[in-house]
Amino acid sequence: MNLTIHGNHIDVSPALREHVTTKLGRVERHFDQVIDATVQLTCEKLRQRAEITLRVRGNNIHVESVEDDMYAAIDMLVDKLDRQVIRHKNRVKDHHGDSLKHQQAGQPSQ
After folding, report:
1. For labelling, which of 23, 26, 27, 57 has a CA lying 20 to 30 Å from the CA of 76?
2. Residues whose CB falls within 8 Å of the CB of residue 9, separated by 6 or more in sequence, listed in order
3. Domain 2-105 falls in which CATH fold?
4. Three-class secondary structure assignment of 6-26
């Protein structure tokens, strides 16, 4: 997975980079077909925003989180992303299974 981390009005320290990389490892455990990920960390007046766009085969998953602390925003972001990746994985798996059932149902029994 190609990982790109950008900072808007914030310097991306090695500690922040390591925190993002460690947390995204959890997503890779559930779904290993990730092409690349772009993380945008933004510091506004009193809010810290973390956004990610995850490119998977056939789809883009975009998640955003706003918290008071950047580390909390990253944690919330990864929680949301993990749920969406699992849901995407189940959709891909269910869709494939349904097409096989429809093909077999259309064949006459002998």
Report:
1. 57
2. 42, 43, 44
3. Double Stranded RNA Binding Domain (3.30.160)
4. EEECCCCCHHHHHHHHHHHHH
